Every structure is written in C-alpha cells, then in structure tokens.
Amino acid sequence: MQKLWATIIKDIKILLRDGVGLLLMFVMPIILVIVVTNIQNSTFQAVNKTRLPLLVCNKDTGKSSKQLIEAIDKLGLLKVSQLPKNATTTEIGDAMKDKDAQLAILVPANFSANTQAKAKNASNKALKSFGLQGDSVKNVAIKAESLTLYFNPVIQESLRFSVQGALQSALQLVESRQTLRTLYFAINEKELPSSLESEMLSSQTTLNSVPVLKDGSRAVPNASQHNVPAWTIFAMFFVIMSLSGSVVREKVNGSFIRLKTLPTNYMVGLLSKQITYLFVTLLQASVIFSIGIWLFPIIGIPALNLPSDLTALFFVTLVTGWCAVTYSIAVGVFAQTQEQANGFGAVSIVILSAVGGLMVPSFAMQGSIKTTSNFSPLHWSLEAYYDLFLRGGNLSDVVSNIIPLLIITLILQLVIFLGLKRKNLI
Hints:
The chain has 2 domains: 2-42 and 223-422, no CATH class; 50-201, 3-Layer(aba) Sandwich (abc type-2 transporter like fold), CATH 3.40.1710. It has helices at residues 2-17, 19-49, 63-74, 89-98, 111-129, 157-188, 194-201, 223-237, 240-252, 255-260, 266-298, 310-334, 338-356, 367-372, 377-389, 395-422; strands spanning 52-58, 78-83, 103-107, 148-151. It has a 4-stranded mixed β-sheet, sandwiched between helices. The chain has 16 helices and 4 strands. The chain is mainly alpha-helical.
C-alpha cells in the first residue's frame, strides 16, 4: 500500500506539471459545455419565439390567394413579406439574399380560379352522392399550377419539411373553406355564415405533449439536461491527451524497464495511473455538473437538474471514468510517440463521440452506423446518463447500459496487458 501511495503522489506531481493537459481536461470542456448548451438553448428559443421570414410573390389577384397568405401568417411559424407580383425567379433569389430570408413562395396567377374550380368539382361530386343535381363542371376545369417553394440550400432538411407541412396545412384550409362555401351555396342558395364557417373549419381537439419518464413525473427536460451529460462524457474521455502521453513518456525514458529491476510490480504503476486519473474524471464531472447547477442560471441558461438517484449518477460516472482512463492507457501503450498518442487520441475520441450519439442522436442513425454505435463506450455512457437525466430512471434502469460499458473496459484492460507483454515491458 505504501508503494502504491508513493506512486500515486508521483503521478499527481507529474499531472500538475502538465499545464496543457490540465487545460484540455478542465478549461476546454467547461467552455465547450457552456457554449454548446447556450447555442442550443438559444436555438430552441429562436424556433419557439421567432418566426422565420418568408417572402411571397403573389401573381394572383383573387380572394383565395389573399386567404392563403392570411392563413400562412396566422400559423405563427412564418413572418410573411410580400414581393412585387411581377418578380422573376432571379429577382426572388436576389430578394432572399438581400432580406436574409431562407424561404420564398410563388403563387401562380390562376391560383384562385383553380381553387374555385376544384371546390366546384368537389361540391358537385358531393351533391351527386346525396342524390342531388350539381352544376355542370365541364367548362370550369383549369390546368392546375402548383405553389413553388424556393429555399436556401443551407437550410436544414427537417426545417424545410416542417415549413412544407405548414404551407400544406394553410393550403388545405383555403381549399376546404372554398369547398364548404360552394357546397353550402349550391344547397341553400345563400352565402355560408362566417360563424358557421369558423365552427366547421376550426379544430376543437387539442394535442397535449407529455414526456414519458420512468419516475412518473412530468418535468420537461431543458437544453442543459441534454447537453451537460453528453459533454461531460466527452471531457472525461479527453484525459487521453494527458494520460496517453504520460504512458508514452514512461516507455520512452525506460521507466517500465527500471520497474522490473525494483522490488515492486508493474501493476502498482498501472493501478496508480488508473486511480489518479479516475479521480480526475470524477473531479471533471463534479465541476461541470456544479457549473450547470449554479452558473447556468446566472448567465441565462436553464439550470441543470440532477437526477433523483444520486447513487446511480455516481456509479455511472465512476464506470465511465474508469473506461476513459483504461482507453487512454491502451492508446499510450501502443503509440510510439507523444505526437501519435495525442493525434490518434483526439481524433478517435471525436469519432467515438460522433458514432456514440453525442453529436448526432443515435435514434436518427440507420443501418451499419447504428450497429457501430454499440461498439462505442461513449454510446453506453450517454444512454445511462440519459436514463437518469431525461427519463427519470434509477440504478436498476441503467444496469443494461453499465454492463456493456464494463465489458468494453475489461477488454481494454486485457489489451493493455497483452500490449505490454508483447513489448517486453512487463
């Protein structure tokens, strides 16, 4: 035990002299989690509170096109600005650039006439199904022209689909209103009352969104709940920048060889590094969680709410830290130089983060990439944290994620042993 303690003191002194490593392990992750969480929180607020600018070039002069524009404006998603009706495609593109608008629509000149024709066709079919005689429709058929949506290629596809769905809803509302009016007039020979029209077109059924949490609560997770756990994992695995380099230095300067000549065991040195850097990872998590709890509200970011099962949180953090330390040592054992260890270590952590779901949600992955995510230890750590922070789980809920993480860690431990044995370092 005395030998182990002396070795731990030695590793702590080496760590404290590594200013760059401490910067990468503490300062950079803290800046990263603050910036990313703030950006995502701002994005959520922008989407929810700010309407996207939409330019409209209306070449139609009828009522239906005006009703369409009013319906789009009432959706609350888009802020409508109208362009001259004679604007060309080039001019629409220039206007999008000048007004910093990502979207524009072109309403064709025969939109109202076409909508009325479609409404009359639909109402006549309805009348015939009722056994009534409808008007002749052979003279009202008009060649249909679609609305054209112009979009900036940089806009996200999911957002574009949301806008298309909103525009389709507005279009459906206009067509339904015209069909109701035409059908009502054909039966009663008078205009459809506005109150009845509103009652028939307005949706009386509301949609309630309720989060499904394992603890039975109904708290909606905020941006901090999503980002802080994910980037805490990233920070813990970034101990590779200091630890792998330390292992390489000891290989190069012959420390492992000298240990073989002393009355001690190589396991003492490896155990010392694991204990020292495991403490570092726990300290990283504590610092980042504390910042989420106390600093975030001060700078306008939603506070991080810790899960109710703190024992499970500590256990997941402990296993994650151990896996991060083990992976770092494994990289250091096989790297020939510090440059190799740092370069491969940094790139590999970024790749494992991307595959593991830290950058792109794993549920959005398909095919072989989704299968590959199961081999990333960061994936299992993230799922365990999400079970606690987002789904309201406890220790029994995260066991299924901890077991694969422990298996990966033990495999890496075996790889370390075989690597040292192969290089005759033990």
